[in-house]
Structure formats: structure tokens, C-alpha cells
Write a structure and sequence with these properties.
The chain is of the alpha+beta class and about 550 residues long. Among the domains are: about 170 residues, no CATH class; about 140 residues, Alpha Horseshoe (Serine Threonine Protein Phosphatase 5, Tetratricopeptide repeat), CATH 1.25.40. β6 and β7 form a beta hairpin. It is elongated, with a radius of gyration of 27 Å. This is Tetratricopeptide repeat protein.
Amino acid sequence: MKNMQATNFLLKFFFTICLIVVMGGCASYSKQIDQATAAFRDGDFPTAEQKMQEVLEADRNNLLRYMELGVIRHELGDYSESNRLLEQAYQLSEGLFGTSVRELMTRASTNAGMLTYKSEVFEKTYIHYYKMLNYIFLAQGDLSREEKNQLLDAVRIEGRRAQILLDERVFQAGSYEEAEEEKAKLLNQIMSIYAKLNGEVINPRELTFRDNAFMHYIMGVMYEKYGELDNARISYERAASVYERGYVKQYGLDPGMVDQAKFDTARILKSQRDPRWQRVASTISNKDLKNQLNAYLPGQQANLLIIQEVDLTSPKGELNLIMKLNTRQKQLEIRPLLIGTREEQGYQLSWFYYLYAPKGILDAVQRIHQEGYYNPNEIRPKTIGVGPLLSVMEQVPGLISALETGVRLAVPLFYYDDPPFTSRLTVDGHSTGSMMDADNIAGLHMANTLVSAQSALTEAMAVESLRLSTCLLTGMPPFGCSLAAAATCMADTRSWLTLPHTIRIKRLNLPEGQYQMNIISENKNFRNDERFNAELISGKIQIVRKRTIYKP
């Protein structure tokens, strides 16, 4: 008996060592394209393009390849080619939804990274963002009136496409107004209390992507630029509403975006001689904006919008787990397997704790307030009762033994970082204040990964159990099947990495003329000056877009 226990212990120990070695050899998507993103950071866009094409050459990555290369071409100033690539991305994305049973079966025989990349809804909105900018910058060239009109029509089409996409999302997920009404219901308040008592610190309903305030704001700018004032006002109004009712709080944006969108709504109304501008103005809290609005004379000044795209978005990583069967307790136990640097391991541990580990409210409060906390032994495993299923498991020869040894699972996590620097704008050497965070793409990625975390774990458990069972039915020993399954297990960590981390804006009304601008981006160890000239014309909107890369 003792010899058998010793043998089992040695097998499990050897399995764990092999598992760690296998995991060390697995590379996430962000690791695979490190050379491409490094070249992008250095401004070597041809090399970034080449490396991106090499990593994403498989057909399953077509959508992601078109999106990544579309941004690179945008950075190169090749707006026509950027639009060609992004149009291919749009057409492809229209037919890609959900995960089918067939795809899960494919994943069981390979891994999640071998499935067709489908993109997230918020990523799809940025296809239209870049296409709108491309058309605008093309229209600023030396073209005939007919050619310019064609480009302006194309801008409108992209705006309509983005509008349809966001309207569909609101229909599916509910608006921020509906979310607030639901939150106020007694049943939801009671459920919230019990969730907190159970230590559930993540509420997927509060993190769900519902709408994109920044995209509505940009659509308002586009409509206004080309004289469609009614559409511009509607877009600004919706942007203000979405920012105010939850978007600012949900993604950690600048509260000033609420007043900015309201200001532009009122400005359009005043241009149309619509007395409702005064009612909108009364809801603006910023006194300077109120004063500007009172003094505003339509067509007398130029309008400048500066868009700063901050660095690159954060990458997805992989959380490795081991699932074991405790036959005595008749339950599956899932624990984290930590790899990487101590900082990465701490992040992985926190991710597992918040999303999967059992805990009570006191546990959660203690954990949240302990800075530098790192003790894997104090984290209890996630447990799932399998009593009624044991008889089914016993029908697959060796499955019980393999589950007792352990099965590797892999699910996505998101390595979120705050924006690496602050930004401010000077005009002719005079400060105009800070740039405002208008959208947080890294935050959108983070929230989406959190919302899908439970379903990702469920899928991983089902797929790896199926993979293990299939292997055992071939007659291979349980230990060998566990190791073979572990070697091919991989989470899908692909995402659109050339998107910026954050988007900041500054909007100014200035007299007609030539101006020297400087976007100053800095932290205690970094400073970047982005100097440029802008020629402003009264009654016209000038759009300037800059990408600032963090190079400490």
C-alpha cells in the first residue's frame, strides 16, 4: 500500500514538473509578435508589417492580420491601402459570430489559438474609426471637387456603419439607462448583497460593453465637419448621455468629456438658432465652457480637434490551471499554476482569486487591502461537485486515474496597466491644460476579458475533458494522456495589439491663423514633445491626429 502511494506521489510530482516545463514553452500571441510591436514602437513600420504578416499568415488570422496591417498602413500615411485592408476586415467580421459546437470540437483536437479569430465588438468599432480618419486625411489632398465629395460620402458611410453596430449592441446588451433602472430594482439589490457576502467582487453586468461614447463623439465631429448639423447634434447628445450615465465611470475616463460633449451639443443648437441651447448649457458644470458658449458666435472662429493616441494597448496573457479529481470529496478542484516573474505570478494569483476562488466578504476585503500580498498556499481551490457524474466518468477507462493525476487548463487573462504618461497641450507656448482621456481601449479589453472569464473556464474544462477522454480511448496510459493534453493546451490570447492604450482629445475654438502646437507627454522618467504647426480657418474644423509611443 505504501509503495503504491509512493508511486502515485512520484507520478504526480513528475507530472507537475513536466507541466511546468511544457507551460514554459508556450508563447502567448503578444510574445509571438514581440518583434513586430518592438518595430512599431521604434517607428520602423515596414519591419513591423513584415513581422506581423509572418505571424498572422494562416487563414484563421485573416481578420486580425487585416486590422493590424490597416493600422500600420495608417501610421505610414498610406491611407488608401489602410482603407483597403480595413474594408476587408469589415467584410470578414460581418460573418463571424459566436463559437459553434464544431469549433469546440476542433479546439479539442488542437487548441483555442487554432480557431478563426472573430474580434470583439469594440474592436469592430475601431475599424470604422480608422476608416473615417483615412477618408478625411485623403480628402485634405489636392483633389477635384468630385473626388473630395466621393471621399466625404465614404466618411458618412463609415459613420452609418458604426452607428448600426452600436445600435445593435445596445439592443443586445441594453443601454446604460436600462442598466441603471435594473440596478435600482429590489431583487437586484438583494442579489448584490448576497453576491458581496459570497465574496463576488466582479459583477459582469456592470462590466458589459454596451455602447461607445467616444465613437458617437467622433461621428458628431465628422457630421459637423461636413455640414450635417442635425446628425452632429444627435451624435453629440448621445455621446454626452453615454459618457454621463456610465461610460466615464466604467472605463476610468476624464469626467470633463461629459461637459465637452454637452458643450458641442449646445454649440450646434446655438448655430441653428435653437433656443434649447440654453437648457443644455445649464447642465454644464465647467464655468469656462459656459463662458465660451455664451460668447460663441457661429462661423467667427476656427475649430481645432487634436486626437492623441497613447502608446499600444496592453496584451492578453494566459492563466494556467490544474484540475484534479478528489474522489474522497467527490469534487473537482482547480488551482492556479503560476509561471513567469514574481510580478506576473502575483497578477495571475490575483486574477484566479477574484474570478474563481471561493471566498467570503471578510476574505475579499482583507485581500484587497493587503498591498504586495503573495501567498499561493492561502488561496483555496475552486471546487465543483461531481458526485452524480462519477459513474459516467468510470465508463471511460483510465479517466478517473488521469483526473486524479491532474489536467492542465488554460484561460485568457489581461495584463492591464494604467496609461504610461499624462499629456498637456500648449498653443504658441501658452498652456491650454491637460488632454482628456476620451476612450480607454485597454480598459475595454480588460472588462471584456473579465466578463467572459467564467465561460472561458467552462469551455476549457469541457474541451480538455473531451481531449483527455479521446486519448484514453486509444489505449494510452492515463499519465501519458494527461501529459499529451497538457502539451497542446493553449488559451486564445489574440487581440488587436496595434490599437492605442488610451485616446485623448483636446478641442479648442481659436481665431483664424497659423499656430505652433506642442503635445507634452510626461511622467517622472519620461518626456516627449510633439511639435507641429496648424493653419486654422474660420468656420472650419481642423482635425490633427498624433500617436505617442512610450519609450522610457
